[in-house]
Design a protein that fits this description.
The chain is α+β, with helices and mostly antiparallel strands. It is built from 13 helices and 14 strands.
Length: 425
């Protein structure tokens, strides 16, 4: 099974590539054998969960040819069904510690690159958690949510197979504009040198009333989506943490965030793999005032669906066709993405797709995401919603204390919006 263009770019981007999603439940920790039995019942028929990367054998030269040559590309193979006993284990640490331990440790060992851990002391308002970690090359965020949702006592019914509306045809002007945006230089987060960067993970909670109040602003508009709020809060956090962009390196380049976009049609929501793209959005760090920044983010985010359609309808098919001519295509596509200035941050808002859920009658309390660790000078932000519980995870590859400061600044930005009685620019 050939890797998709998205799979291959994620595999070759030079990052650890570990992502995760945890579901925190009330009640007592379930027996690990019962969890394994449910995993076997619900996931055994999913081919993607038994896929292993077929890498080169033999000498290093042959391995390089196998990985990058025309006739020896890395492929997904299914040597047999996955073994629940090897993949489902009990964690030895709390959830926050598990995230910190996992973020820079790629999963390998010759078995499918995913693990499900039963976390005994989840904290975060629950009694235990089920935490799924995987290599991003195998699964994207939507896949993690689909899989975790399928383990609940009553999984949501599958959607119908009605044909979804086709993507709008992108014009040459839209394609050219997106290519310009993708190749424009940007800035990484300020570091004196890459050597001072340290991986760090911070998890914090956002009160539901704060988020609900923040979503009503700007008050004279339509209100804000969770994604818009997160992007706006990150822009404010960067300003609070590092000052205006013009002071970072005395350059004019903007700071970009990468916004993941799910490209699945309605009929394909349960498909596993990497059916996604990332749209590069400029962050209004230099705009003064939280509400003014939010307005700027809303304007920028309004273009994201149309731009994602350009990726799906034109750029990805072109890349898939071109890469058949040789490995240089993927090297070209991943070259800029390997540089931290391409996107200083990633911002992902995720909502639990299953509504009220239980596991062995334990109620779902919240979900906690783990965005991937990227290059020095970057930070990833994931805001997960499950019912009225909102949980922010910040993964930093910056100075040791910066992830905590950025997380606190994001929360402060939400609180500022929540207490703003009227819009002020």
């Amino acid at each position: 099974m050939r890797l998709s263009c998205a799979d291959e770019m994620l595999l070759l981007n030079g990052c650890p590539g570990v992502i995760g999603l945890a579901a925190v439940f009330s009640g007592e920790q379930p027996d690990v054998e019962r969890v394994r039995a449910r995993v076997a019942e619900r996931w055994a028929g999913l081919e993607r969960m038994s896929c292993v990367l077929d890498r080169a054998s033999g000498d290093a030269g042959a391995g390089r040819r196998r990985m990058f040559g025309r006739r020896g590309d890395v492929r997904w193979v299914v040597p047999g069904p996955f073994d629940p006993a090897a993949h489902v284990t009990v964690a030895r640490s709390k959830l926050d510690d598990l995230w910190a331990e996992s973020v820079d440790r790629p999963l390998d060992g010759g078995i499918p690159p995913w693990r499900l851990l039963v976390v005994p002391d989840a904290a975060r308002g629950g009694g235990f958690a089920l935490a799924l970690v995987a290599q991003h090359a195998l699964l994207d965020g939507r896949s993690l949510a689909t899989l975790m949702c399928s383990l609940t006592d009553t999984p949501p019914a599958a959607r119908g197979s009605a044909r979804s509306a086709p993507l709008a045809r992108a014009g040459l002007r839209a394609v050219a504009g997106e290519l310009r945006t993708m190749t424009t230089a940007g800035q990484a987060l300020p570091l004196h040198s890459p050597e001072e960067a340290r991986p760090s993970v911070v998890v914090c909670e956002l009160p539901a009333h704060t988020v609900r109040s923040a979503r009503r602003h700007p008050a004279d508009g339509r209100g804000a989506t969770l994604n818009e709020l997160l992007v706006g809060a990150v822009a404010g956090a960067l300003r609070a943490g590092y000052g205006p962009v013009r002071e970072w390196r005395q350059r004019e380049e903007p700071v970009y965030t990468a916004v993941p976009c799910d490209l699945r049609a309605r009929a394909d929501r349960r498909d596993l793999g990497n059916t996604l793209t990332a749209v590069r959005v400029p962050l209004p760090v230099d705009v003064e005032g939280p509400v003014a920044r939010l307005r700027a983010c809303q304007a920028a985010m309004a273009t994201v669906p149309e731009r994602a359609a350009v990726h799906a309808g034109v750029l990805f098919p072109a890349a898939e066709a071109a890469r058949r001519t040789g490995p240089w295509v993927i090297r070209l596509l991943t070259g800029r993405g390997r540089r931290s200035c391409f996107a200083a941050t990633t911002t992902t808002a995720m909502k639990w797709p299953g509504g009220a859920s239980t596991f062995e009658e334990g109620r779902l309390v919240r979900t906690v995401g783990l965005p991937p660790l990227r290059h020095p000078g970057t930070a990833g932000f994931a805001l997960a919603q499950a019912g009225d519980a909102f949980t922010l995870t910040v993964v930093g590859n910056v100075r040791p204390d910066d992830a905590r400061r950025l997380a606190d600044a994001v929360v402060t930005e939400f609180e500022t919006w929540a207490r703003t009685a009227a819009p002020s620019v």
